[in-house]
Amino acid sequence: LTPHGAGAAAESGSNGPVKKSMREKAIERRSINKEHNSNFKAGYVPIEEERLHKTGLRGRKGNMAVCIIVLLFLLALINLIITLVIWTVIRIGPNGCDSMEFHETGLLRFKQKADMGIVHPLHKSTVGGRKDQDLVIVGNNNPVVFQQGSSKLSVEKDKTSVVSDVGISFTDPRTQNTFFSTDFENHEFHLPKGVKVLSVKKASTERITSSAASDLNIKGDSKAIIRGNEGVNIMGRTVEFKMGGGIELRAENSIVLNGSVMFNATRIPNSAGDVYFDEGLERYKLCMCADGTLFRVQVKYPNMGCQTSDNPCRKAH
Question: What pLDDT shows up at residue 268?
Fold first, then answer.
């Protein structure tokens, strides 16, 4: 190209389309074809495993998800079992509970037989039945026990025991009449009709008596101690002491036996029997004055009588 031709081409480019040479057109055509051919791979993603984008729960997250699913399944199964138990035992239906009733006063009423095992009352431990129906409580090879705090009522096969630190009372809930109570400070202590034996370890009362037509027997397994702050006064048509071992009457001042006093001689030891006299063995002889005063004399020689200078008989006269 001559300079004149170059000037003409530049001038024509400024005023109109520029004419390209054959070489430029071939280069442009090859680039268009190359771009067109590469456009067929638009949106293509390699499908090799290592080049794919990983989704989902894998590794520890997957194990944790399996554990959660198993736990939810177990909870659902336990909930189903509890629901079936409630449905079959308590019998809850669309109309309410068929076996029990709940009242606003806190009363729980059983309308059918109930197997409860151990019951722990929370507030008031009151158990009762309907007025015209019996209340039947059965223990299968076990005692029926009612317990609230330190108070305990146990109904067993051969006995019924009541244990309480604050006392007990049996009261009619309708008439509020007390049949039996250990509160002897407010009223006189009476045994219920038909009860003949009262077994206690320790009792504090002002007076123990029986009816005029029956005897009053006080027995102790090991020993019986009757003590009074102002003395003990025992009265009766016949007062009899029966002891398996020794008998002891102790007083600070004196003991007064008013009436006919009788002793069973067969139960009193005899110091003058066939036993050989031993000075080293301490023996005593029971003696009685004309006014009924009893005293003892130490036996110092065989066939010793009640003659002694130190006796209460002479002091009384």
Answer: 62
Tokens of 129: 């039945």
36: left (phi over 0), alpha (psi -120 to 50) or beta: alpha
Token pair listed for 105: 């006063």
Tally: H helices and E strands in the chain: 4, 11
Q: Which residue has the higher pLDDT, 232 or 186?
A: 232
291: helix, coil or strand?
coil
Q: Rounded CA gap, 78 and 241, in Å?
A: 70
Q: Give me 37's structure tokens.
A: 């051919």
Burial class (CB in 10 A: 0-12, 13-18, 19+), 10: exposed
pLDDT tens digits, one per residue of 271-291: 555 455 667 777 788 888 887
pLDDT of residue 317: 41
Task: Copy the structure tokens of residue 314.
Answer: 């002479």
CA-CA distance, 16 to 19, in Å (whole number)? 9
Task: Write out the two tokens for 47.
Answer: 């499908």
Q: Work out whether the CA dihedral 175, 177, 180, 186 comes out positive or negative.
A: positive
Domain ranges of the chain: 58-99, 115-120+136-194, 261-307
Sign, Cα dihedral of 243, 246, 251, 255: positive
With a CB cutoff of 8 Å and minimum separation 6, the contacts of 21 are none
